Amino acid sequence: MRRIIIISILLATSVSGSFANNAPELDSLWNKAVSAYTSADYRTALDSFLSIEGEGVQSADLYYNIANSYYKTGNSNGKAILYYRRALRMNPSFEDAEINLSMARAQTLDKIDVVPEFVLITWLKNVRDSFSSDAWAWGAVILFVLFLVALFFFRFGRSSSVVKASFVTGVVFLVAAVFCFGCSVSLMNEYGREDKAVVMSPVSSGKGSPNENGQSLFVIHEGTDVSIIEELGQWVRVELSDGRQGWIKRNDIEII
Length: 256
Hints:
Elements: H1 9-14, H2 23-38, H3 42-54, H4 60-73, H5 77-90, H6 95-105, H7 119-128, H8 133-156, H9 160-192, E1 196-199, E2 203-207, E3 216-221, E4 225-232, E5 235-239, E6 245-249, E7 253-255
Antiparallel strand pairs: 1-4, 1-7, 2-3, 4-5, 5-6
Helix pairs in contact: 2-3, 3-4, 4-5, 5-6, 8-9
């Protein structure tokens, strides 16, 4: 696997409010985890990283290191995939997490085809995922300020060339600001979704109905991505990337 993220500032940027009082303890846990990981003591590193998560810290870097530790222990490829997905949900442009996720997925038993999207939708998602939600939001703010500057010159410009140029650039800045704002909102909505999950059970059978006696439609294994369609008691109806749907037990999956 690629490098471990060794960034102590993680704690400064991720801990706030009631967690601030625990900053020394969290910093100690972080240093312990990093030391253990670099010494190839992946079990200790994993326990320390999970302890930090247990204190309520949420960070793409933390999730990435948890995933690396799970992968290195060799005990749960499904957990590794889960945490790489969580890291990418917080930071879609996290290249190392994307690379390691591909490596972890290569070890899963299920090789399920993906239903192709309309090419424009795929392109827009790729553009959206090239930056974080915060980066898009800041871009929207900066572009809107530039739009206001262009509006000023449009209103008070003393020559027709200045007025025309400011009008055109103002429209461009406004459209770009709206696009950036839309990407930021889209990523925030994506982060808040709870309909994506990863199979944690070594083997899970997709049923035609939400009960043990339902007809088996397919079999999936640990590490497979699923989308949750609906829930009924201890059962959830999921959809695979190839469009197949079936009911599996709720405790066979974990929400990303």
